[in-house]
Amino acid sequence: MSVSTNTQFKLPVRAPFWAQILAGLVLGVLLGWLARSQDLSWLVTTLEKVGGTFIGLLKLAVAPLVFFAILVSITNLRKVNNAARLASRTLLWFMITSLIAVAIGLVIGLVTNPGAGTGLTPADGAKPERTGSWIDFLTGIVPTDVITPFTELNVLQIVFMAAVAGIAALQLGEKAQPILTLSESVLELLQKALWWVIRLAPSAPSASSATPSPPTAGT
């Protein structure tokens, strides 16, 4: 004879990701206050290691993710009927969002006046030996080898190499299919690994906001 029960065991509800980030920030502020007020050097060191490790993991994923994402996106244009129109709309949205980001940055800079409490004056600065030109900018996009852009995290050079590789793959057609299949698999692998890193994000703002900032001049 079977015994039925109305008791239901419910799994604990996981907080939304934004709430975890917010909780991490609040926890970081509390830990930072505790570390400064109690002079807990071990806590400061631990928080710096946690935050630095998270940033290092993100930097590790950026270069290959950008390269393979652009490569796969360009090669997938052959599946789009009106690729030129899609590309023009993409560039338009890129310019619009860039202008919005610049406007937000300018407004925040004018309102908060960053660097006002540092005690620095224009006389403390030094003029650069030379200023770059548009020609220098364009020539700087072209890498001299395929390794340095990844080791130095030069995103513009990585984008250039990915664009060249993607266009070349489009020209090759079916001959490039094996490398395209491999690139799509690598991109999926990187996205999965990056999601694991992002799941650690609540601990990153906690560690970053808790790390005491160095004293500025005049304080």
UniProtKB/TrEMBL annotation:
Q: Keyword annotations for this protein?
A: Cell membrane, Membrane, Transmembrane, Transmembrane helix, Transport
* An annotated Gene Ontology molecular function: symporter activity
Q: Which SUPFAM superfamilies match?
A: Proton glutamate symport protein
Known Pfam families for this protein? SDF
Its GO biological process terms?
dicarboxylic acid transport
Where located?
Answer: Cell membrane
Keyword Transmembrane in the entry? The reply is: yes
Q: Which Gene3D superfamilies match?
A: Sodium:dicarboxylate symporter (1.10.3860.10)
Top-level taxon of the source organism? Bacteria
Q: How does it sit in the membrane?
A: Multi-pass membrane protein
One GO location term (cellular component): plasma membrane
Q: Any stretches that span the bilayer, and where are they? A: 17-35, 55-78, 90-111, 155-173
Is the keyword Nucleotide-binding in the record? no
Task: Write down what this protein is called.
Answer: Dicarboxylate/amino acid:cation symporter
Q: Which organism is it from?
A: Streptomyces haneummycinicus
